[in-house]
Amino acid sequence: MAQLVSLSANMTCTCGSAPATLIVAPPTVTGENKPVANIMDYIPIANIPPFGTCTILTSAALGVPTPCVPAVAAPWAPGSPTVTVRGMPALNSTSKCICTIGGSISITSPGTTKETVA
To answer: What tens digit of pLDDT does each residue of 98-110 get?
Structure first.
């Protein structure tokens, strides 16, 4: 079973140099006393902060370190098929987002330890 994802979940991008922490803005339901995310919590900066420097953009800039600001154009997938949060599928620890620059964003620590979802 996958874990329910909440505020303070850690994420990585395959092209980023550092992890980032998911931002979930209230109002929302809580799990383990933290705001719980759904698949629509994918907005760059508002929900998904930068991941340090981007290896693709740094390479394109001939080695000049370039910030890894996510360029996400679609929701997390797949979400939970059985649990909804704010009317949309809950975000679970197996969900991923694709950055249009070329990276894949995944959850490395869901922020919850006891809440499981399908």
So the answer is: 999 999 999 999 9
Q: Does domain 1-118 have CATH number 2.60.200?
A: yes
Structure tokens at 84: 């909804």
Count the neighbouring beta carbons within 10 Å of the beta carbon of residue 73. Answer: 11
Which tens digits make up the pLDDT trace of 4-48?
A: 999 999 999 999 999 999 999 877 888 778 899 999 999 999 999
Instruction: Specify the DSSP element, H or E, that contains 108.
Output: strand 104-109
**Separation of alpha carbons 41 and 54, rounded Å:** 21
Burial of 111 (0-12, 13-18, 19+ CB in 10 A): buried
Place of tokens 């797949």: 78
Burial 12-37 (b: 16+ CB within 10 A, else e): bbebbbeebebbbeeebeebeebbbb
Domain locations along the chain: 1-118
Q: Where are the alpha helices (DSSP H) in the chain?
A: 55-60
